[in-house]
Design brief:
Layout: E1 8-16, H1 22-30, E2 48-53, E3 57-63, H2 73-86, E4 91-97, H3 104-112, E5 120-126, H4 133-144, E6 151-154, H5 163-173, H6 191-204, H7 211-214, E7 216-224, E8 230-239, H8 242-249, H9 254-271, E9 274-283, H10 291-296
Parallel strand pairs: 1-3, 1-4, 4-5, 5-6, 8-9
Antiparallel strand pairs: 2-3, 7-8
Helix pairs in contact: 6-9
The structure holds guanosine-5'-triphosphate (GTP) and magnesium ion.
Guanosine-5'-triphosphate is lined by residues 16, 18-24, 37-39, 41-44, 65-66, 126-127, 129-130, 156-158.
């Protein structure tokens, strides 16, 4: 940074349909796995901040749950999280995947942006590696017709292409200001939340239909052993029905063991010690529609 260029900082949010690639994009820009991702829709269930540091700028990204037509009270609350976030940011990025045609879901979200006239607006066409050049061009044209964007950027988080183009465009749209976070901070997600999310990510792998939506994870305790390089994690994996419990546990407990092993490997990376994961499967009857239970789960 030279004396003549002012440092810029501010908040940028990623919104879009479920599965559009928002969380994968945030992780790619921050350079660390902050949000869990999956091929199942509605993976993200709260607003998650990740910080991108540059010499000349600091970008605070707020990843949001996919906006969708809600079918449950949980769905309604997730959409409300997005609405609240939109009111608090300098730049809104509408993420649209290149490999699916622009649809009513995308248009509905685009219309929601009208309520936030002060925010700059950027269209991001994600997953360009998964579509032909022609499809990407068509998608760019289709999003360009939605509104007069401050920038339109096609990119691939997985191939790592054009990420710098997006960051440059976003930095240019931020107000001048000092860094908002310490240089070493990439997120302020509490450890217990990150661990619960990693367990949920592992549990989402290989489940189908309604089950992904029914899964919730809570953490009872995280205990760092003083005598050994070991952390004990006590977690609960909640489902909505007894029949789902059987599916999660699997024959002879095989599925649950796999979930535990996958989650443990990921948790070890963030806690930096070996991990013993105590994972219990429990039923919270129809929790997605139960206001009391949703409150207990923090929604
Ligand atoms: N091919 C390809 N796949 C991608 C890319 N970015 C994300 N994906 C995949 O798309 C799926 C959804 O990614 P997420 O980042 O979880 O999507 P999201 O928009 O955060 O989804 P919700 O949290 O449910 O709203 C995952 O299977 C990702 O691996 C990309 O650049 N290329
Ligand atoms: Mg997400």
């Amino acid at each position: 940074m030279t004396d003549t260029t002012q440092h810029r900082s501010g908040f940028v949010t990623f919104v879009g349909r479920p599965n559009a690639g928002k969380s994968t994009l945030m992780n790619a820009l921050v350079g660390e796995k902050i949000a869990i991702t999956s091929s199942k829709p509605q993976t993200t269930r709260h607003a998650i901040r990740g910080v991108v540091h540059r010499d000349d700028a600091q970008l605070v990204i707020v990843d949001t749950p996919g906006m969708h037509k809600p079918r449950t009270l949980l769905g309604k609350r997730l959409n409300a999280v997005v609405q609240t976030t939109l009111g608090d940011v300098d730049v809104i990025c509408l993420c649209v995947p290149a490999d699916e045609p622009l649809g009513p879901g995308d248009r509905f979200i685009d219309q929601q942006l009208e309520g936030f006239p002060r925010a700059k607006k950027v269209a991001v066409v994600t997953k360009t590696d998964a579509a032909s050049k022609e499809r990407v061009a068509q998608q760019l044209l289709a999003v360009s017709e939605l509104r007069d964007w401050d920038a339109v950027v096609p990119l691939s988080s997985i191939a790592g292409t054009q990420l710098d183009v997006l960051v440059d465009a976003l930095v240019g749209l931020l107000p001048e200001g000092p860094p908002l976070y310490e240089a070493e901070t990439t997120t302020e997600e509490p450890l217990s939340v990150r661990i619960a999310e990693l367990v949920r990510e592992a549990a989402l792998e290989g489940v189908r239909d309604e089950l992904p939506h029914s899964i919730m994870v809570t953490i009872d305790d995280i205990v760092r052993r003083e005598d050994r390089d070991l952390t004990d994690v006590y977690a609960n994996l909640w489902v909505e029905r007894d029949s789902q419990k059987g599916i999660i546990i699997g024959r002879g407990g095989s599925r649950l063991r796999q979930v535990g092993a996958d989650a443990r490997a990921e948790i070890e990376r963030i806690v930096g010690t070996q991990v013993h994961l105590d994972l219990r499967v429990k039923v919270a009857k129809e929790w997605q529609g139960d206001p009391k239970q949703l409150g207990r789960f923090g929604f």
